[in-house]
Structure formats: structure tokens, C-alpha cells
């Protein structure tokens, strides 16, 4: 079975008679990418199924892409609305803002979410964590070796390929040459044996993890920081799911770990906190102490990318971000997250009730289901789509280490989660 999404259509090549072609050579890095980006590929498969079975269209339930579904709560919404309204007044109008974000929002992020362990000037407000990961890649360029958890959020690998850091994909292993894959499966409690893996320049690490739902403990993160420090690697910590952490003592930020300021930067996002997947607002923290081998600051180069290729997050949206961090906004975020965590619990219980081993779903919105030995995750995805009209994500879509697992997203509305649980039990039980 293919580890990555096998393309439904041949890879973007048009017939020469159809169009007159330019004389521009295609960026060879793009020819290395296998198939499309995972989530649109899932969407294409769902649409292909609906096209063949139009009578089933209204039955489709999505537990696929981790897209929020609950309305933006009142106080947070009022922040968006009032900053939009201000633009219609002479006094309130504003044009370009600071590329790094509004000073008030940077300060509020540093104070309210990090309790002062980072400085306002180290916070770069953006349009989301995914976009920031590409900007991080632009800072590091094409000559670095990247390490990723396997399975992992596909953006780390795909952007590494686009940047030209990798060789081709190896058809046997389904891994790109020149990327260090750090296996994370139930056998190692989803934490890599990092000391025994080859060194990488840049280590991407997501906790709570997408897709496995594993939230790394303090001891695990201490080990990660220690190994990165000993090896002179830079850790890019993705904390986009941090507010889902409910277990005591599990760090919500890498900066809770001693020594992290010298080795780590952190990407984060309001997407899953506050239902901002469409609104778009995120941030990246780059500490002053994080440097390159020549002693120059990573922060300065990240700032250079932001000021050159980004004009700052929308002023309307930053008003929403400010409201998120008021006490009322923070309480609304907690309520939203409780709702999605309850969904995760229902999904986990449903799969466990029919005998599956299930991971994640307690400090994360993703439930990671182990499939019976030898069962392909793409085949299981298709079977569930066809028999139960439930969209899931095959573990293999997140890299070869995800083969043998299925990811269920808890971001669906409650009634559809309940219905999906009963259909999954019927189909797989
Ligand atoms: C996912 O389903 O993994 C996420 O929604 C993707 C994302 O946040 O970009």
C-alpha cells in the first residue's frame, strides 16, 4: 500500500496539444512531491465517492480534516466585530500595521499564554501556524537536514521537499532521502528514541501531536531539549493543540522546559483555540538566545522574512485575538475545548467498545486508532467511506509510520459524532 496519498489524477501534467507550454523549467523540487497535499486529496476522494453515489451525499459525516465547526463565542466575536466597525470611522481607521503584529496583542500573548516566560518582542503574530512553518523553512533554507516525527503533520515534510532540502522519495521505504524520520508508534509510546537517531539540523516536534494525539511529558521534552542542545540542533516546537492539554503537569509550551530558549522556537495558532480556522491568526515565538553557528540571531532572520514577505495579520482579526485573551474570551475557549474533548471521548469509547486499541483523544482533539495487523489504512479509509459514509484520515497519509492507524477528528458537531460512533461500530465491529 502506498504510504502517501496515491494521486487520483496523474501529477499535474497536461497534454501538449491542449495548451501552448511556457519555456520555464518546472521547479524540480515540486516534481519530487508525491500526489497532492493530504487534506485536499481526502476531499477529492470524498467528492469522487459522492459523484458516484449522489444519494449518499447527505449522509456524509466528516471526521477527517481537523476543521472547527462550532460558532465563535460571543465575547470573541465582539472583538472581531468591533475592530471591523472601527475601520468605518475616521478615528478608528487603520491601514498597514506592524509586520510583527499589534504591540498590545504581542504583549497579551506573552503575558496571558506564557505567564511572562517569553518577551513581547519575541512574539511574531501571523496568519497561522501552517504559514509560519513555511516561513521558518525560508529562514533555514535548502542546506539543512530536517527531522520529523513519523507519523507527522504533512506540512513539515512537504515544505522541506519544496525548499529543496531532500532527495527523492524512496519507493520502498516511502521516505524522502535526507530527512530524518523519528518513528513514533504505540511501541515507543509515540515518543522517538531520539538519542539513537541520526542528528538533524532542524527538529520539528508537535505536542499534543497531530496525528497521534500524544502529549509529551515534561521528562520527554527535557530529553528532547537536552539532545537538541548537545547536538547543536534547532527545535521547532508546534504547540497548536496546547489548550487541549488537561492532564496535570504536561507542558503547554516548550519554554516551560529549562534551557529551551537557547534551542527552540514555537509555532502556535488561534485556529483550534477559538474556531479561527477560517479567521486566520497565529504566532511564532523566537527567543533572543536562539542563534545560528555564526552567532547571529534566528529572530533577526525570522523578522526579515516577516517584514519582507508579510504585511502583518489582518487588523480585524487581531481584534479578535485580543478578545480571545480577555478573561471572558479565555473562558469561552475552555468551553469550546471541553466540547471537542467530549467528542474525542465518545469516539475513543466507541472504538474501544469494539475491541480497538485507541490512543490520543484525552489531551488532544485527535483519536488515533490502531488497525488489525496487516490492514491498510487507505483501504480502511475507503471501506468506512463506502459502508458508513464517514470520512476519516488514513494514518499512512501522515508518513510511513502512520500505516496501520486511522485518525479520527473530534471537531465535528456532537450529533454527527454520536451518529458516526454508531456507524463505525456497525461497520468495523
Ligand atoms: C489537520 O486536520 O491535521 C489540520 O486541520 C490541518 C491543519 O491545521 O492545517
TrEMBL record:
An individual GO BP term: systemic acquired resistance, salicylic acid mediated signaling pathway
GO molecular function (one): transaminase activity
InterPro entries given in the database record: Aminotransferase_I/II_large, DapL/ALD1, PyrdxlP-dep_Trfase, PyrdxlP-dep_Trfase_major, PyrdxlP-dep_Trfase_small
Keywords in alphabetical order: Aminotransferase, Pyridoxal phosphate, Signal, Transferase
Origin: domain of life: Eukaryota
Cofactor list: pyridoxal 5'-phosphate
Gene3D superfamilies for this protein: Aspartate Aminotransferase, domain 1, Type I PLP-dependent aspartate aminotransferase-like (Major domain)
Keyword hit for Transferase: yes
Transmembrane annotation, as ranges: none
Family according to the record: Belongs to the class-I pyridoxal-phosphate-dependent aminotransferase family. LL-diaminopimelate aminotransferase subfamily.
Protein name in the entry: Aminotransferase class I/classII large domain-containing protein
Amino acid at each position: 500500500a502506498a504510504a502517501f496519498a496515491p494521486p487520483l489524477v496523474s501529477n499535474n501534467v497536461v497534454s501538449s496539444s491542449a495548451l501552448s507550454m511556457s519555456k520555464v523549467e518546472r521547479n524540480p523540487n515540486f516534481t519530487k512531491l508525491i500526489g497532492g497535499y493530504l487534506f485536499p486529496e481526502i476531499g477529492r476522494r470524498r467528492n469522487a465517492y459522492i459523484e458516484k453515489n449522489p444519494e449518499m451525499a447527505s449522509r456524509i459525516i466528516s471526521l477527517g480534516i481537523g476543521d472547527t465547526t462550532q460558532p465563535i463565542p460571543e465575547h470573541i466575536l465582539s472583538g472581531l466585530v468591533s475592530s471591523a466597525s472601527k475601520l468605518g470611522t475616521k478615528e478608528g481607521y487603520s491601514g498597514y500595521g506592524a509586520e510583527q503584529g499589534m504591540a498590545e496583542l504581542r504583549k497579551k500573548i506573552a503575558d496571558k499564554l506564557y505567564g511572562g516566560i517569553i518577551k513581547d518582542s519575541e512574539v511574531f503574530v501571523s496568519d497561522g501556524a501552517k504559514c509560519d512553518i513555511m516561513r521558518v523553512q525560508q529562514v533555514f533554507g535548502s542546506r539543512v537536514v530536517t527531522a520529523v516525527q513519523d507519523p507527522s503533520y504533512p506540512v513539515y515534510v512537504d515544505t522541506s521537499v519544496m525548499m529543496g532540502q531532500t532527495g527523492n522519495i524512496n519507493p520502498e521505504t516511502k521516505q524522502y532521502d535526507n530527512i530524518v524520520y523519528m518513528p513514533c508508534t504505540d511501541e515507543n509510546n509515540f515518543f522517538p528514541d531520539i538519542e539513537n537517531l541520526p542528528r538533524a539540523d532542524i527538529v520539528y516536534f508537535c505536542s499534543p501531536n497531530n496525528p497521534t494525539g500524544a502529549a509529551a511529558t515534561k521528562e520527554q521534552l527535557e530529553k528532547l531539549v537536552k539532545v537538541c542542545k548537545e547536538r547543536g540542533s534547532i527545535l521547532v516546537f508546534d504547540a497548536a493543540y496546547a489548550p487541549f492539554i488537561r492532564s496535570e503537569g504536561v507542558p503547554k509550551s516548550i519554554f516551560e522546559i529549562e534551557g529551551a530558549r537557547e534551542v527552540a522556537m514555537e509555532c502556535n495558532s488561534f485556529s483550534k483555540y477559538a474556531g479561527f480556522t477560517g479567521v486566520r491568526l497565529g504566532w511564532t515565538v523566537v527567543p533572543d538566545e536562539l542563534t545560528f553557528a555564526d552567532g547571529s540571531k534566528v529572530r533577526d532572520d525570522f523578522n526579515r522574512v516577516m517584514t519582507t514577505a508579510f504585511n502583518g495579520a489582518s487588523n480585524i482579526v487581531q481584534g479578535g485575538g485580543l478578545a480571545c485573551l480577555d478573561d471572558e474570551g479565555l473562558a469561552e475557549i475552555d468551553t469550546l475545548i471541553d466540547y471537542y474533548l467530549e467528542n474525542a471521548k465518545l469516539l475513543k469509547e466507541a472504538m474501544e467498545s469494539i475491541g480497538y486499541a485507541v490512543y490520543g483523544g484525552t489531551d488532544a482533539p485527535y483519536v488515533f486508532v490502531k488497525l488489525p495487523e496487516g490492514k491498510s489504512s487507505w483501504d480502511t479509509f475507503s471501506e468506512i467511506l463506502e459502508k458508513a459514509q464517514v470520512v476519516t484520515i488514513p494514518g499512512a497519509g501522515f508518513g510511513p509510520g502512520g500505516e496501520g492507524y486511522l485518525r479520527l477528528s473530534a471537531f465535528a458537531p456532537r450529533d454527527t459524532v454520536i451518529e458516526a460512533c454508531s456507524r463505525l461500530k456497525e461497520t468495523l465491529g
